[in-house]
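Subject: Interface between my chains keeps coming out wrong

I've been trying for a while to get a sensible model of this assembly. When I model each chain on its own everything looks fine, but I need the whole thing in one frame so I can look at the contacts. Pasting all components below, labels as-is. Any help appreciated, I'm running out of ideas.
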Amino acid sequence: MTNALWVLPPVAFGLYLFLAWSLLRVCAGGPLHKSEAEKGEPYACGEEFSHAKIAPDYSEFFPFAIFFTLIHVAGLMLATLALSPAVGGLLGGVYLLAVGAVLAILFAR
Amino acid sequence: MKKAMEKLVTWSRIKSPWIIHFNSGACNGCDIEVLDALTPRYDLERFGVLLKGSPRHADVMVACGPVTRQVRKRLVRIYEQMAEPKFVVAVGTCACSGGVFDGCYSCEGGIDKAIPVAAYIPGCPVKPEAVIDGVVKLLTSLQK
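Reply #2:
Try treating it as a single job with all components included. I did that and got this:
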């Protein structure tokens, strides 16, 4: 039971998040860190990078992106739900709803 | 704390030094030899030496050619963008001292005119064996 707790996705995610944060704190503020004028500047092959705000518009791709993302996950889940009939009914309904939502988004545009 | 941290970082970097290749005005002869050392014929990668595209991922800058006036600022900028501890290896006669370009109106001389250099590998062009030898010597010196 104790072992199972550590490998639970939210717990494992939290642990790794804490580990990454600790490493960042140790390295960024540690004795090896030197602050140089260009250290934090964006890398542009050595060129000076002007801080212009770039905001590309991907809204046209959104319906396709969400359709392909959700339909793949939903397809996988619906195909494998038969392996666990106990939770199949409710979960299957949720994924079918998600499929309906993405189809609506795709065709409503 | 500082000593222990330095030891840990040095140990891990010796096992897998990642490099960035920079041409500061070379004729490309040394660049080709550096690539020769990295690709399967000599295969430095089997020792964990990986060529990276960003200075933020690199521990060692492998610099070829003399420092031209045009490129100096860019060289310093890229060097500053590397994470500590960082090392520079000057590859080729031009990178070591300016070579045939020394005294030229558009050149400032070797790499050490712009940034600190940890190892010099002379040759025109350098042989891949010399590049490997230089890398091994640099890593050995770090170990000490």
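Reply #3:
Confirming on my end. Residues 2-108 of chain A form one domain.
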